[in-house]
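Table S2 (continued). Query chain:
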Amino acid sequence: MTTSAWRLMAAAALFASAACGGRSSIVATPAQPRLAVASLRPAAAKSALLYIADAGKFIVDVYTFPALKLAGKITGINRPQGECSDADGNVWITSTQGLQILEFAHGGRTPIKVLGDPAGYPAGCAVDPATNDLAVTNLTGFSGAGAVLIYRHGGGVPAVYQSAKQYYYFFAAYDSSGNLFTSGQTVKAAYSLALLTKGTHKLSSVAIKGATLYFPGTVAWLGSTIVLGDQLCGNRKLSCFYRGAVAGATVRITGVTHLKGACAIAQAVVEPAQLIGGNTAQCGRGGKSGVAVWPFPKGGHPSKSVAGLDMPVGATLSVAR
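Corresponding output:
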């Protein structure tokens, strides 16, 4: 596998590399959607649940948290990737090749809502806790650049936003003021960060000072600190997470967390004392793909890990209210 092909797979961008002819592996006409069904143990819904989207197996694994005991699986989603949760513990999962975004109640067995994506291939999502608006990032459009879709209150016809400089859109997160930040790449595959300021109708570019990021991943917030994941930290097959302060259209990096035993963490759950995510083994160093918990912001070796995944992408933690 070429380096460029590995990088795209690690980010779960479903494209073949230029060395393979430069053709997209996503077809414009998706397969017929299957019935998404969760097989969860009834008692599992009483605990916090960690949802990990395994794009390689077309399965979402659900674990009790913090025990990391497998509670069940969601099947029938056509290439699950990004995930996000709302304040009620409801979980959204993007179906990239199904062109859908599915919502499950905490521990639920069938979707409570299914949204169609009219603009492209959904990769990531984020929920504004103040309005319950759902933001969906389209990796690409059907014949060109991706976009950010905003489903008002989590439904209806989405508003579509694009940036002049960002071509691929990966993951996103809202800050406490309702501003949306999304990671991605330019048309030349350089890392980019875009901002949809609350109340505006256009994405703007965000400059990053103090570090160079190479491949887009997690976007998360801890209070007023933004956390940006890099799947190719230092342009090597390692994952790290940068902490930064936002001032206007600039992020100034204030610290970095290096993770041991972490190859390509596409999307992670970031908490004040821990970071949780799926860890792929596509780095040529052996080992097995799985889910792990690392100290944060200290980093280092994982404090807990469970193997058994193929190509983990999305991660979200659901707590029933």
